[in-house]
Specification:
The protein is of the alpha+beta class and 121 residues long. It has 1 helix and 7 strands, in the order H-E-E-E-E-E-E-E. About 14% of the residues have low confidence.
Length: 121
């Protein structure tokens, strides 16, 4: 009888941990998934220093304007499972694990400001 209760308490505490992790993260959206990791992310909600992102940026390739965006600088650790249009939670991480990888040099325009991030689980 005690074991099922302990399992239930453990599962509930894990659920609380996940919720609090997401609550401390920033909600973003992958708006451009360009060639060779030229990725643009839009901040949808959460606390972020406005000096770290571009308030309004016009993509010279499409003439479309995006609000509150930045270029992804941690392309080696960004999950390939996140597709253009997907929303996700992240935190700024200036030292992401596994940040060294080979990157091709093809260019696609991105905003002038960039951030290294980690995805919140």
């Amino acid at each position: 009888m005690i074991q099922p209760l302990l399992v239930l308490v453990a599962l509930l505490s894990l659920n609380c941990t996940k919720s609090s992790d997401v609550n401390n993260c920033i909600k973003g959206k992958l708006v451009i998934n360009g060639i060779c990791g030229n990725i643009t992310i839009q901040v949808l909600s959460g606390s972020i220093d406005s000096n770290l992102i571009v308030k309004s940026w016009q993509d010279p390739s499409t003439s479309k304007t995006y609000e509150n965006v930045f270029a992804l600088k941690s392309i080696c650790t960004f999950p390939s499972s996140i597709k253009e249009g997907d929303e996700f939670y992240f935190k700024i991480d200036n030292d992401p694990k596994g940040s060294d990888c080979a990157v091709c040099l093809a260019y696609r325009p991105t905003p002038p400001k960039g951030l290294m991030i980690s995805i919140c689980k």
